[in-house]
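Chapter review: from sequence to fold.
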Amino acid sequence: MTSGSGQGRRWFRRRAYINPFETLDAAGAATCTHLDAITAVTPSSDGCEDCIAAGEREWMHLRLCRTCGHVGCCDSSPQRHASAHARGSGHPIVQSYEPGEDWMWCYVDEVYVDAPEPGPSPSHP
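The token string follows.
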């Protein structure tokens, strides 16, 4: 295909990176392989428990570990405690702990996860 400028310039589509280890659904979208890690949890705190323990309260948004209930701050926060918890504990899935948000994220597969249970999502007061 050439551009209309007459220069004979060719336009190519970029090939997307394909991870050979990711699981794809029937439509070819990446899926989470850690759904068995999702459990019913009780939030450990009304705020980032690690920030509170350090005497800080500078978090942007909160995330709830769906394996153990740890509440940590997001990666937009200075300390990034939710992802540090996921790396350190091996707990792969977090859920937004913000009012009105109902999404989950798998840190290992780097994909959004469909919530397995109906009903309102947990959120801090």
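Two observations follow directly from the output. Residues 81-89 form the longest helix (9 residues). The two ends are 56 Å apart (CA to CA).
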